[in-house]
Every structure is written in structure tokens, then in C-alpha cells.
Design a protein that fits this description.
The longest helix has about 35 residues, at about 140-170. About 15% of the residues are buried. The protein is extended, with a radius of gyration of 22 Å. With about 190 residues, it is mainly α. Helices cover about 70% and strands about 0% of the residues.
Length: about 190
């Protein structure tokens, strides 16, 4: 049985501070809080993973391996400090940092809605369709191609936006989170 050690108090403290600051940055709006948590969660998962690697390091770990992990954690802490400064400024003023934070939360919300909407558009299973399969009409084929082009266009726009976000992160020395949406629970109010 693999029992992991708990994370150090400083790491947990950073995470709690992030949660409080993110909540204040969006004026404690519940959906916006959840969006920001989802946006920055991969960053904390990566930090926790490296922290656990250092805690559970093998006895024969090379000094280079240890130094690389410690360097990564130092950089991670600096970026986290920059992120907390952005969120704190966003909570204190309604200027550009607040707009950036709000829009980062909206990006997660729109991406989640897009994924759920795409799943709702999937055709329902028709067991008799296999027996009476006919050729696809040109009109249907055109609609399918149009949907594929729209999806490709959206994916390209998302990739370009992610690249701009990464450049801003590198320039500013902070982390703006990732636009990864994981649907853990199917929203019951949207079922058809």
C-alpha cells in the first residue's frame, strides 16, 4: 500500500492563500471562484507532485536530480508569488488586473459550455440505422464539414490564445493557469 506523506505546511498555506485571494479577486462570486480554482488547479497539482518526489526521493538519487527539483520548486514559488500579487491587486482595484482575472475565469466557463454543448449535439443511437444504412446526403455532408471546420477554427484560436498567455507568463514571471476543462459531474440542468 502506497501512503503518501502529507504536503508541507508552507505548501498548504500557499494553496489556502490562493483560494482566499482568488475568491476576493472575483468578489466571492461562487461560479467565478470555481472557474479560477479549475484554471489554476493544474499548477498546484504539478507543485504537489514535485514536492512529493522530493519527500519520497530514493536513497540513490543523484545530486543533479535533487537540485533540478529544488530549482523547479524555487521557480514555482516565485511564479506563485507573482500570481498572488496579480490576484491581490485584482481584489483591491477594478483596473486591468481585475479585468484579466475576470476574463480568465470566463474563458474556463465558455470552454466548459462549449464542450457540454458539443456533447449534447451528438446524435442519439438508432439501432435500426445499421440495417437501413444509406449514403449520406450532400447537404448533410456539407453540414458535417462545416461543423468540423468550426471546431478546427476554435481549436486553433484556443492554441493561439494559450501561446499568448504563456508569453505573458514568461514576461511577467507569474502563472495565469491553464484552459483545461475537466467535467467531473454532468450538469443536470442541461440534460435534454
Amino acid at each position: 500500500m502506497n501512503i503518501q506523506k502529507s504536503l508541507p505546511p508552507t505548501f498548504r498555506s500557499h494553496y489556502r492563500l490562493f483560494l482566499r485571494t482568488a475568491s476576493a479577486a472575483v468578489l466571492h462570486h461562487s461560479q467565478a471562484k470555481r472557474n479560477l480554482r479549475e484554471r489554476w488547479r493544474p499548477m498546484f497539482d504539478a507543485g504537489a507532485q514535485v514536492t512529493h518526489e522530493l519527500q519520497d526521493r530514493p536513497d540513490d538519487a543523484s545530486p543533479e536530480w535533487i537540485r533540478a527539483r529544488e530549482r523547479w520548486l524555487r521557480d514555482w514559488n516565485k511564479r506563485l508569488d507573482g500570481t498572488l500579487k496579480l490576484l491581490y491587486t485584482s481584489a483591491r482595484s477594478r483596473g486591468l488586473p481585475h479585468k484579466v482575472t475576470r476574463n480568465l475565469g470566463f474563458m474556463i466557463m465558455y470552454e466548459r459550455d462549449r464542450i457540454i454543448g458539443k456533447l449534447h449535439r451528438l446524435p442519439k443511437w438508432d439501432s435500426s440505422a445499421q440495417r437501413k444504412r444509406t449514403a449520406v446526403a450532400p447537404k448533410e455532408l456539407k453540414a458535417i464539414r462545416k461543423k468540423q471546420e468550426e471546431e478546427q477554427s476554435h481549436n486553433n484560436a484556443n492554441k493561439a490564445l494559450d501561446e499568448v498567455i504563456r508569453m505573458a507568463e514568461a514576461f511577467s514571471g507569474l502563472t495565469l493557469g491553464r484552459n483545461q476543462v475537466i467535467i467531473r459531474k454532468w450538469p443536470s440542468h442541461r440534460r435534454t
